[in-house]
Amino acid sequence: MKKLNEKEIIKIINSKHVSSEDVEIFNLANKQCAVCVDTLVESTDIPKGSKLSDISRKSIVSSVSDFAAKGIIPKFCIISVTLPKTISKKQVQELSKGFSKACKEFKIQLLGGDTNQGTEISIHVVLFGNVKKYTKRKGAKIGDVICTTGAFGYTAAALDIILKKKKSSKAFSAKSKNLFFRPKARLEFGHKLTNYTSSSIDSSDGLSSCLNELSNQNKKKFLITKIPTNKDVIEFSNKNNTSLNRLVFDGGEEFELVFTVMPENLKKIHALAKKNKISIFEIGYVYKGKGVFFDDGNSSFKIEDNGWQHFR
Predict the structure, then answer these.
(1) According to the model, what pLDDT value does residue 13 have?
(2) Which residues of 30-66 are buried (b: 16+ CB within 10 A; e: fewer)?
(3) Domains located in the chain, CATH noted
(4) Residues within the annotated binding site for Mg(2+)?
(5) pTM of the full structure
């Protein structure tokens, strides 16, 4: 029997009735509203030694990042938690601390939720918001520039350090782990960015995955000409003889924005990024065709969808 991956399962469930977006838009009392849901499970999403307050905060950040990619500000959330019978009062307080921190950080009102007993910690977050303007995954035009916020490779490096005991400097280890356990969502920037972008997605499933998703949604070829990373990630890759492409393209958990933009809007986007102290990488261009490819003049290859998927 063929083993299904996450995207195949989603395709079957969604059928023809649901859009291929992480945030769904619907009408309520003559107003457009947005909703998204995300799940975090202990055995697949939480490395050993993680602080529960970081994990609970991150569960909300994950959904907020989906809203950021659409340019929508979340207003309310509902949280459902499944907890093992052995969980202590202190651990529950740690989870609550992370939820409160995230809600305060993003100005979200927690409406309530549900609690259940299970074999491991599982967190389900539902976000709601009002829609004025938003950017879809579909909308990229031939000639558009492909951009990302932030540098990639740190979260994959963090997991290599934690799980595979890879070598790194103390500074790089601390930086990578901080970005993995305490990520930022580009919410305010994403909200302003929607005035200039033609398509957008968040990178939580990995850069290779979201580039392929945008390429498929837009039925266009994406040619990547620059790797969006920093010198210290390259040094980590060289020191450990590990693939830089794997670290950058296949890591996931970055919660950065990947978007397309018309060339004439680049100046405005860079000015907006500078004002918000966010780095922007122009990594490629949109062409007629299909698939995602890399070519920087020195090496060329097809970028396969090797990002994070459950059931893989």
Answers:
(1) 53
(2) eeebbbbebbbebeebbeeeeebbbbbbbbbbbbbbb
(3) 22-130 (3.30.1330.10), 145-302 (3.90.650.10)
(4) 22, 38, 66, 114, 202, 205
(5) 0.91
